[in-house]
From TrEMBL:
<dbReference type="GO" id="GO:0003677">
    <property type="term" value="F:DNA binding"/>
</dbReference>
<protein>
    <submittedName>
        <fullName>DNA-binding protein</fullName>
    </submittedName>
</protein>
<keyword id="KW-0238">DNA-binding</keyword>
C-alpha cells in the first residue's frame, strides 16, 4: 500500500498500534491542520507524506526505513 497517496484509518491504526477510533481522531486533527493551509482533505484518510512527516520527522516511508 505504500505506493498510494493516502493512508486509510486502518493503516494508520496498525502503523501506530492504536485503536481505529483513536486513529480517526488523529486523522481528523491532521486534516484540520492541512485544511488551515488551504488543502482539500478527505475524511478518514490522510496524505502519506504528511503523516510520516508529523510522526517520524521524515518526508517518506522509505526515508524512515533507511532505504
Amino acid at each position: 500500500m505504500a505506493n498510494q497517496i493516502f493512508m486509510r484509518v486502518n493503516e494508520v491504526a496498525e502503523e501506530l498500534g492504536v485503536s481505529v477510533p483513536y486513529a480517526y481522531k488523529l486523522i481528523r486533527q491532521m486534516n484540520e491542520e492541512l485544511a488551515k493551509t488551504g488543502c482539500i482533505t478527505i475524511s478518514g484518510r490522510i496524505d502519506r507524506k504528511f503523516f510520516h512527516e508529523k510522526f517520524y520527522g521524515t518526508r517518506t516511508e522509505t526515508a524512515r526505513k533507511g532505504e
